[in-house]
Input
Amino acid sequence: MESSKPSRFFLEIDLNRDGRQTGFVRVPHSVHRSAYGWIPVPIACIRNGDGPRVYMQAGNHGDEWEGQLALGRLIRELDPAQVKGRIVILPSANFPAAMAGMRTSPIDEGNLNRSFPGDPDGGITRQIAHFIDTVLLSDTDYAFDFHSGGSSLTYMPSTLGRRHAEPEKTEQVVGMMRAFGAPVAYLGLALQGADLTLTSAAARRGVLCMGTELAGGGQVTRSVLKATEEGMLRLLKHIGAYTGPTVPAPPTRLLTVAGDPYYVYASEGGVFEPLAELGDEVKEGQPAARIHFHDSPWREPVVVNFRHEGLVICKRVPGRTERGDCLYHLGTDLQL
Output
C-alpha cells in the first residue's frame, strides 16, 4: 500500500528546468563511518520545453550492465535541442547494488524490483522504491526499465510489456517494443512478486511502461550494447520525445510467456549441463538439462524436461545450481 509520507531524499537538480542537468539523489544513510552521510544515486534530466514526460532507468538490479552503460551514453551525448519535453534518467537505480555488482543491495539485501511501492520508513531499497514511485513515476507519461539477465541468466535480447485491459494501451506497448527493435518481444510475463515491480507501480499510476531483458551473463557484449543504444533512440523518437536521426528497427517477433509451464527449474542441486541453447525451438517433454552430482560422481545425472513447447529465450549461466533455480524460460508466438 502506498505511503502518504513524502520521501526524505534530496534531489540536487531541478526537473522543471530546461537543458541538461546531472547530479545526485541524496539518500540519507547514517552509519558508523559517516554519522550524517548520504548515498549518491546518479540522476540526469534533459528537458526542452513542452512534450512527453519520460522516465528511464537501469540498474534496478545492480549486476545488469547493458542498460546502465547505454543510459550513461545517452546522458552524455543526447542533444537537448533534439529533445521535446523532459527525459529523467536514473541509470543505476539501486545504486548500492550496482556498486557491489550484485542483483540485490549489500546494505539490506533488498531487491528493488520486488520493493514497490516502497516505504519512506523502510530499508534503503524500499526508500529508493518509494522515491521513484512518488517523485518520478507520479510526474511522467512513460517509464522504461532496462534489465538484462544479470549474473545468473542470459537472454535473447528482448523487450517485454504488460497486457492491459484496454486493447489500445496494449497496442501502444507493442508499438514501443517494435520501435526498440529487439529480436523478440513478449507480453504477459508470469513474474514472481509481479505486484511489487516498477511495471506494476507504473500501471497503478496510469504510466505506459516497457522493459527489456538485454543478454546478461554478468558481462557486456558490444553488439548488444550497440543495439540497446540504437533502440533507446528509436523508442524516444517513437513517442515524440526525440527529433534526431535513428537507424531503422530490425524486425521483432512477438511472443507470450504464459505461466509456470514456460519455465524450467532445477529439481536437484548439482552441476547444470544445458541440452538446449538460446534461440532453439523445443517441444514439451524434450530433455532440457542434466543435473550432475559432482559430489557423488557414481550417481546418474537427473534429466529435467521442458514442460511446454516454445522458443528458448532465457538460459541459466552458472554451472553450479540448487533445487529451485531457474534454468530456462520459453516464449510462444502471440497473435494480437
Remarks:
- The first strand starts at residue 10 and ends at 11.
- The chain has a mean pLDDT of 96.
- The radius of gyration is 20 Å.
- The domain at 263-333 is CATH 2.40.50.100 (OB fold (Dihydrolipoamide Acetyltransferase, E2P)).
